[in-house]
Write a structure and sequence with these properties.
Layout (H helix, E strand, L loop, with lengths): L2 E6 L3 H4 L1 H6 L4 H11 L3 E6 L9 H5 L3 E5 L9 H12 L3 E5 L6 H7 L6 E12 L13 E11 L9 E8 L4 E10 L2 E6 L12 H14 L18 H7 L5
Parallel strand pairs: 1-2, 1-3, 3-4, 4-9
Antiparallel strand pairs: 5-6, 5-7, 7-8, 8-9
Helix pairs in contact: 5-6
The structure holds zinc ion (ZN).
The site of zinc ion has 4 residues, from loops.
């Protein structure tokens, strides 16, 4: 069974009434509910917990980390960010949602400024532009998001492995809204929808994309390892000769 940790900053939903109305128990609990319905094993963690709830032990038992952050990016512990980065490099999957593009975790993993353009109060049509990708299975050609914050290009990311979704906004901007990356043994999916002022994580097709992404970025093998430089003293061919592999 895939073991997921849903991490949320959990600040706006506690402090702002209009956002509390949309996510009474926080974005993390909304995401937990639809993932549990799918049969995944889910735990949650939030910023206020010790070590932000992302201890070595929690990460060791996490196949996929889902991460939503916004207002506390700078306050997030650099030590914890480096720990998450290492776990991704060792094979843990990472799904970074919406404003988490600007998290220390994503900046460290991807190495670019992660800057973009934004504007409140727009409407998005999310286009699936890689229909054969596992994350796109069962997803319509396009998804209407009636209210969303505009995120626009240029989005300063390294060249993605795949761009699975492209967002079009009614103001005219476009955005690479669903991108995959690989770092070490870990798979990363960045997914733009999910501004906290709108009930975006209740949209069934958005939930389906996140469920697909969990399956896609879960490590295929449980044993994680650090990729390291190795000196090879005996070449594979030499080994083959010694074991009598060559006639
Ligand atoms: Zn936002």
């Amino acid at each position: 069974m895939i073991r997921i940790t849903v991490w949320n900053e959990y600040k706006h939903e506690r402090e702002l009434e209009e956002i509390k109305k949309i996510y009474p128990k926080g974005i993390h609990e909304c995401i937990r509910e639809f993932l549990e319905e799918e049969g995944f094993q889910v735990r949650t963690a939030v910023f206020s917990m010790e070590e932000h709830g992302l201890t070595e032990e929690v990460l060791e038992h996490t196949d996929v980390l889902i991460f939503w952050s916004h207002a506390l990016q700078e306050e997030f512990s650099s030590e914890v960010a480096s720990r998450v980065q290492r776990h991704v490099q060792e094979g843990m999957g990472l799904i970074a949602l919406h404003s988490a593009h600007f998290s220390k975790i994503m900046k460290e993993l991807l190495g670019t400024s992660m800057t973009l353009k934004w504007r409140h109060g727009d409407r998005e049509r999310l286009w699936c532009i890689a229909p054969s990708h596992p994350i796109a299975q069962g997803i319509d050609e396009s998804i209407e998001i009636p209210q969303e914050e505009m995120y626009g290009e240029y989005f300063d990311i390294p060249k993605p492995d795949e761009v699975v979704f492209a967002g079009w906004f009614s103001g005219g901007e476009v955005f690479r809204s669903g991108c995959t990356f690989t770092r070490g043994l870990g798979k990363i999916f960045y997914f733009q929808p999910g501004h906290e002022e709108y009930p975006i994580y209740y949209i069934p097709q958005i939930q389906k994309i996140i469920k697909n992404a969990v399956r896609w970025c879960a490590p295929s093998h449980r044993e994680r390892k650090v990729l390291d430089c190795q000196e090879i003293r005996i070449s594979p061919e030499e080994k083959r000769r010694k074991t009598g592999g060559e006639k």
